[in-house]
Amino acid sequence: xxxxxxxxxxxxxxxxxxxxxxxxxxxxxxxxxxxxxxxxxxxxxxxxxxxxxxxxxxxxxxxxxxxxxxxxxxxxxxxxxxxxxxxxxxxxxxxxxxxxxxxxxxxxxxxxxxxxxxxxxxxxxxxxxxxxxxxxxxxxxxxxxxxxxxxxxxxxxxxxxxxxxxxxxxxxxxxxxxxxxxxxxxxxxxxxxxxxxxxxxxxxxxxxxxxxxxxxxxxxxxxxxxxxxxxxxxxxxxxxxxxxxxxxxxxxxxxxxxxxxxxxxxxxxxxxxxxxxxxxxxxxxxxxxxxxxxxxxxxxxxxxxxxxxxxxxxxxxx
Length: 318
What we know:
Blueprint: E1 2-5, E2 16-19, E3 29-39, H1 41-48, E4 64-68, E5 74-78, E6 87-91, E7 95-97, H2 104-124, E8 132-135, H3 141-152, E9 157-162, H4 165-173, E10 178-181, H5 187-194, E11 200-205, H6 209-217, E12 219-227, H7 241-247, E13 250-253, H8 266-279, E14 287-292, H9 296-304, E15 311-315
Parallel strand pairs: 8-9, 8-11, 9-10, 11-12, 12-13, 14-15
Antiparallel strand pairs: 1-2, 3-4, 3-6, 3-15, 4-5, 5-7
Helix pairs in contact: 2-3, 2-8
């Protein structure tokens, strides 16, 4: 089968199209004939070995696919890797049926980005009706869905940040009440101004560096920051416990795999809720571009440039 393989760590240049044997499913696993592959920012970290979970060479990147089982059932799945290929193996515990009426883009948008937004708002930050929510990188895969979910769940004011006018217009179209420039020199002041001079209740942040530091400073008492990535590849300052105490601040980190350690099939319930919202027309996935498997390097270059919007896909037939 055709697959994209990494044999040395680095940037997009280390992604190479090769021929590999078909993977063999083991106990509790299923073989999937892949229709589309989801591309995530985490894939760029995996290729350079800067992700939370260390990578081992050689590797086939890719943590999410949509396709069909040998019985013809249409499924979307999270993988331990191996997604950038014509066929992939997934654990049954992380494989979900795709309802009729839900397309490949939507299914793939939900299983990582959608569930990230769902968990941040539901579990990490515990959104309450009427609260203000800041969504950084609001035109990205997580951001586009977080804006819509926050509005659907009763946020009083959704403040989006994005780096250009086109992205800010998209955030407004998706339901944000105001969209501001993510390159503001003083993000603390910009967020308070966007919230009518008041501090904000919730910030969803995957940027890191100064943006994280200034976002924490913009939080109201009992405000929460949901931290789920570091796209800038810059470390924020270490949080001082006395400052958290002094402002009743919560900083919640969130890594998607931990959702599977929760009792009660929380991940499955979240996926079902997202599918229901999509079928009801209350949220939608935003297409960010589709690339052939042979164009995986270009997909990573686009993602790392932070010039993309929505969800990027790979088509393994090309």
